[in-house]
Design brief:
The structure is a single chain. With about 260 residues, the chain is an alpha/beta fold. It has 6 helices and 13 strands.
């Protein structure tokens, strides 16, 4: 059996600092085999840059997934083609930089990670390729040689993410939802041994809205005007899940939430 740690959306410098301080002990105490984190909010709470991707990797994150904010920082585009540990959603149209899935072998275990973006209530991203059909294609391409497959479905609605979980049940090891920055309490093993949670949460302030100062977000709702947001630096919590699975069959036996406060 192996354990895979999935860390929710890391928000800005406070989130990065929390990962730096917490991750080594978290990995050692739980005998973590592989660490995955969503990093699309590393840069000031929105977007990701090459230097910040490298920074998070240096802290012990093996694979970084992203989502709808992947293109916010132009400098990330060429980096996506060379960083073999960094993913963008696989269902963006062909011709975009980067990759939506990756394969690696660690200590004899063949592992794949797939990054998908939802379409429901995602603005213009409703025009993306179907994430369900994209998952079919990628799983078929992987073939039988990969036993462990982890899917990050970056989506707004619980229905779309839950549908993806049931759609892939028995075909992948885990379906982990991201994007809302609010951790759900529905972690479970589905009927055919796929681990599932609707949202892994975030690494950000519990006194915030999505990791940013709440006052501007509230003002935006009241006025319906766009606002500039800033990341909140206090009362940070690291939201994550640990999945235990059979390295040979890829079947999950447990998934549990691990939440660690950081000031």
């Amino acid at each position: 059996m192996i354990k895979i740690l999935f860390i929710g959306d890391i928000v800005g410098k406070p989130g990065r600092k929390a990962v730096k301080e917490i991750l080594p002990k978290l990995k050692s105490e739980n005998d973590i085999f592989l660490t995955i984190a969503n990093g699309e909010n590393l840069a000031g709470g929105i977007g990701i840059t090459p230097s910040l991707a490298q920074e998070i990797k240096s802290y012990g994150v093996d694979i970084i997934t992203t989502g709808n904010h992947i293109w916010r920082r132009k400098e990330i585009e060429p980096f996506l083609n060379i960083a073999d540990y960094l993913l963008r959603p696989a269902n963006y149209p062909p011709g975009n930089p980067g990759r939506g899935s990756l394969k690696l072998t660690k200590e004899g275990v063949n592992i794949a990670v797939i990054n998908l973006c939802g379409r429901v209530f995602m603005g213009h991203l409703g025009n993306l390729d179907c994430p369900f059909r994209a998952s079919d294609r990628l799983i078929k391409e992987l073939g039988d040689e990969v036993s462990v497959i982890i899917v990050d479905i970056h989506a707004e609605t619980t229905s779309e993410k839950t549908a993806m979980g049931w759609y892939l049940d028995g075909r992948v090891s885990a379906v982990i939802g991201t994007h809302t920055h609010v951790q759900t309490s529905d972690e479970r093993i589905l009927s055919n041994k796929t681990a599932y949670i609707t949202d892994a949460g975030m690494v950000g302030s519990i006194d915030s809205i999505l990791g940013v100062k709440k006052e501007k977000v509230i003002e935006m709702f009241l006025t319906q005007r766009p606002m500039s947001f800033s990341v909140l630096k206090k009362n940070i919590i690291l939201n994550s899940v640990i999945i235990e699975l059979d390295e040979k069959t890829g079947e999950a036996s447990s998934i549990r939430r691990v939440n660690i406060p950081f000031i």
